[in-house]
Every structure is written in structure tokens, then in C-alpha cells.
Write a structure and sequence with these properties.
heterodimer, A: mainly alpha, flat, B: mainly alpha, 75% helix
Chain lengths: 236, 260
């Protein structure tokens, strides 16, 4: 069997139809992850009594176990919990009606949340202490301080880490094939299985991911430039 | 699914999973060792700005960091035999484990080359100049002066990568390797107690990660014990500290570097 360059192109075209699924998985898990992560980071920074150890345990556990185990645990564990709760309450709802991609969304968001919380935390800690004091001294409340002063600056300093977290999340969406979600990786297998040209299909998939990654990097660079326009000569 | 949760299975599977820990660790060890070598070779052209090779290593690093490890695994699993067939080498009898180790090694080679590059760049330029000044050759100054310092600086990044790498090896099951994850998926096929198996799987990974983290912390403390104080402080006043060590009491230098 020889390498068939023409099929790489054919596979590439067919793989493009799976790109929206990959991007959707990435976007949802990054956005939910950012929300979870910011909440966890704030809880840890402000040392909220009961939640603080919980958030720490969440971050440590998720970062100490592979993403695959999270997906498997959610896929097999969540339906059991939902079903038993629904049965206990006498609701007609059953976990079978949840689409498989839902489990991927939940699991990836939980995973991304733990990694994002570290990104957000380091970003917030990088904000100058004087900024907090200045905001308080002109009478801002804590939510105001966070929204107007701290988070924008934290976002700017966390941007490089954030971009690698986004890329990491995008790469790990390839795991969604376990939940039978047809993203790029699963699509490559489907495309290849018709004529057994796995190598060509995976070359196409790799090139596609490479392109997506470079696109994310370029976008980050642009964003960084924009942020630094009004940040120049500032405190940083 | 359908079977009620039974905590005893978690402990049962925990013990049954332990033997396959060996394969996971074999993958991690060998791929990291090969990856270190590859990373060093790949980092050198970029450090010394060798014209054409520099581009190659840039593309190599970009590719392996720009594509998911799962795709790389499949790429090597399906592609390597084809490639080797071109040079009339039949590897169809070679176990999949070798391909997995090879793929992981090239992957960590890319990440480690960046770590090595960053560490070498952050070694003070004056160190190389001093080495040249006392007549060391290029190789000597790299091997004796820069590399030992760079290794210490690269250790935290290396530790991070090792942990991430350990978790990445869970994907090897997709090529049919019976490491921890693969075993955890096949063990409960009879009893249908999947959650219990995955819980003990997560517990094992968690324990290894914690142990590795502690180990690396110990090594790090040993490597930096000469510097005194934290790593950051050591780096910030590094130049002055070295001087003050060289000239203990006679000169005023220690007072100048009041921070040390």
C-alpha cells in the first residue's frame, strides 16, 4: 500500500464537516470552564470558609487525574445519579433522553474549570496590590473592584496561559469519540474506515488541528497587541 | 449500568489494577528518557541558530505541540509501518507498545525541547563568557557550565510535563494497550460495575501524581540548596551572590547586595 496524497485532500474536505462540533465542544467547555474556574479561584483567593477547601480539593483532584477518567466517570456515573434522583422524586425524566454530547460538555467543562481556575488565580495574583487598595480607597465595593479593576487586568496578564489552556482543551476534545460524538478524530476514523486509508485520514486530521492551533495562537497574539495598546506605560 | 453502586468493588478493582500500573510506568519512563534526548537534539539548532536545522526543529515543535496527542498516536500507529515499508523494513510483528512509546517520546521531545531552550536561555550570559574567557571550548562550556545550571532551572517545567505526560498515557488504551485505563475498561465487563472500576482508576492516577509531585519537590530543593532561599530570589541576585561567595569577607560586595 502506498501513500495516497489525493485521499489526504479528500479526507481533509470531509473532515471539515466535523470542525463545527470540535469548535462547539471547545467553546462550551472553555466558557463554562472559565465561569467555574473564576468562581473557584475567587473562593480560594478570598478563603471563603467552607467552600475554600472544597475548591482546593476539586482543583487538586481534577488536575491529578486524566481527563479520560472524568469523561468515563461522568458518562457512567451521572446517569445513575440522575435516574435514582428522578425515581426518588417520581419524575418521568430519565437520563436516556440526555444526548451523549451533553456528557462530553459537562465532563470537559469540569476538567477545563480546574485548569482555568489556576490560570485565573495566577492572573488575579499578578494584579498589583495597590490596585485593590486604590479601588477600595475611592469607595468601590468588592464586586465593582473585581469587575472594573481586577478582572480586566488579570485577563490581560493571564492571556498567554489562557490561550494555551484553550489549545489544550481543543486538543482534548478528541476524547469525545468515547462518548460517540463525531468530532474531527471520530470523523477521521469514519472517513478512513470506508477504504482503510487510516494514515492519510489522520494526516489530514493532524493538519487540520495544526491549522486550528496556529489560528488560535494568531488570534491570541492579535488580542494581546490590542490589550497592550491601552496597557502601555501602565503599571505592568 | 443498571447495577447498584457497591463500594467493595472499588477496593477490589484497585488491587486488580495495580499490576497494569507497570505498563503505564514503562511507557512514561521510556518515552521521557527518549524524549529528553530528542528534546536536547531539537533544542540545540535553535539555541545555536543553525540556519536550516533551526527551521526544521521549529516545525517539529510546532507540529507536535499543535496537534492532539491522540491524533499523533493514531498517526504513528498507522503511518510508521507504511513509512518503514518504503525502506523495506517489516514491522507488522512489532507490538503496538513500541509505537505508543515512540509517539509519546516524540511528543514529549517537542515539549521538553521548549523547556530546555527556555532554561538554557535563562542561564546568565556571563557564565558562557566566563567559560570562554578561561579557555573552554564551545562543547566544554555547554556541557560543564550551561547544561548543569539549565537542568536545575528546567526541573519545575520537567516535573509539570511528567505529570501531564502520565495523564496522557491514559490514551494508549485506544491502541489496545492494556495499561491502567485499558485494564479498567475491561475488568468490569463481567460484573458491569464500571463506575467502581473508574473510581479506583482515578484514585490510582491521583496517588501516583501526588507521590511524583512530592518527589520532584524534594529533588528541586536538593538542586537549589546551593542557591539558598527561594528560586526566584536566587535568580534575582544571582550575580551578586556568586561574587559574594567568591570573595567572602574582604570586599564590601555582600553589603551591596543587601538582599542576600
Amino acid at each position: 500500500m502506498k501513500l495516497d496524497p489525493a485521499f489526504i485532500w479528500t479526507a481533509f474536505i470531509q473532515l471539515l464537516s466535523a470542525v463545527p462540533t470540535t469548535l462547539e465542544l471547545t467553546a462550551v467547555s472553555v466558557l463554562c470552564g472559565l465561569l467555574i474556574g473564576t468562581a473557584a479561584a475567587l473562593v480560594r483567593i478570598y478563603r471563603v470558609p467552607v467552600l475554600h477547601p472544597l475548591a482546593s480539593a476539586y482543583v487538586t483532584f481534577i488536575r491529578g487525574t486524566p481527563m479520560l477518567t472524568h469523561l468515563l466517570l461522568i458518562m457512567f456515573g451521572l446517569p445513575m445519579i440522575i435516574d435514582s434522583v428522578a425515581e426518588g422524586l417520581g419524575l418521568p425524566f430519565r437520563s436516556v433522553s440526555i444526548p451523549m454530547i451533553g456528557f462530553a460538555f459537562i465532563s470537559f467543562s469540569i476538567t477545563a474549570g480546574a485548569y482555568m481556575s489556576e490560570v485565573v488565580r495566577s492572573g488575579i495574583l499578578a494584579v498589583n496590590r495597590g490596585q485593590f487598595e486604590a479601588a477600595y480607597s475611592i469607595g468601590m465595593t468588592t464586586p465593582q473592584l473585581l469587575r472594573r479593576i481586577v478582572l480586566p487586568q488579570a485577563f490581560a496578564s493571564a492571556l498567554p496561559n489562557l490561550s494555551s489552556a484553550v489549545i489544550g482543551t481543543m486538543h482534548s476534545t478528541t476524547l469525545a469519540f468515547i462518548a460517540s460524538v463525531v468530532e474531527i478524530n471520530a470523523k477521521a476514523q469514519i472517513v478512513a474506515s470506508t477504504n482503510w486509508k487510516f494514515f492519510e485520514a489522520y494526516i489530514a486530521a493532524a493538519l487540520l488541528f495544526w491549522g486550528l492551533t496556529i489560528a488560535v495562537e494568531r488570534l491570541t497574539a492579535l488580542l494581546e497587541k490590542r490589550i497592550h495598546i491601552y496597557n502601555r506605560g501602565g503599571v505592568a | 449500568m443498571g447495577t447498584p453502586f457497591d463500594i467493595t468493588y472499588v477496593f477490589d478493582y484497585f488491587v486488580k489494577l495495580l499490576p497494569s500500573l507497570r505498563i503505564t510506568l514503562v511507557i512514561v519512563e521510556f518515552s521521557l528518557l527518549i524524549g529528553l534526548g530528542v528534546g536536547l537534539i531539537v533544542a540545540l539548532p535553535r539555541l545555536y541558530r543553525i540556519p536550516v536545522l533551526q527551521r526544521f526543529s521549529q516545525v517539529y515543535v510546532s507540529f507536535f505541540r499543535g496537534t492532539p496527542i491522540l491524533i499523533q498516536l493514531f498517526l504513528f500507529y498507522y503511518g510508521l509501518p507504511e513509512m518503514l515499508k518504503l525502506v523495506h523494513l517489516d514491522v507488522s510483528k512489532v507490538p503496538a507498545l513500541y509505537f505508543v512509546i515512540f509517539a509519546y517520546a516524540l511528543n514529549s521531545g517537542a515539549y521538553l525541547s521548549e523547556a530546555i531552550r527556555g532554561a538554557v536561555v535563562s542561564v546568565d550570559r556571563g557564565q558562557v563568557e566566563a567559560a570562554y574567557a578561561i579557555g573552554m571550548t564551545g562543547y566544554q562550556s555547554f556541557a560543564r557550565i550551561v547544561l548543569p545550571q539549565a537542568l536545575a532551572l528546567a526541573l519545575p517545567v520537567f516535573a509539570n510535563h511528567t505529570l501531564a505526560h502520565l495523564k496522557d498515557t491514559s490514551l494508549a488504551f485506544s491502541l489496545g494497550i492494556m495499561e491502567l485505563t485499558g485494564k479498567a475498561q475491561t475488568l468490569p465487563t463481567m460484573s458491569r460495575h464500571f463506575i467502581e472500576s473508574y473510581l479506583s482508576l482515578a484514585a490510582i492516577y491521583f496517588i501516583i501524581c501526588i507521590v511524583l509531585e512530592k518527589l520532584f519537590a524534594v529533588v528541586e530543593r536538593r538542586l537549589f540548596r546551593h542557591e539558598g532561599g527561594s528560586v526566584k530570589a536566587g535568580k534575582a541576585v544571582g550575580g551578586l551572590k556568586r561574587l559574594s561567595r567568591r570573595f567572602p569577607a574582604g570586599l564590601d560586595l555582600p553589603k551591596e547586595g543587601a538582599r542576600s
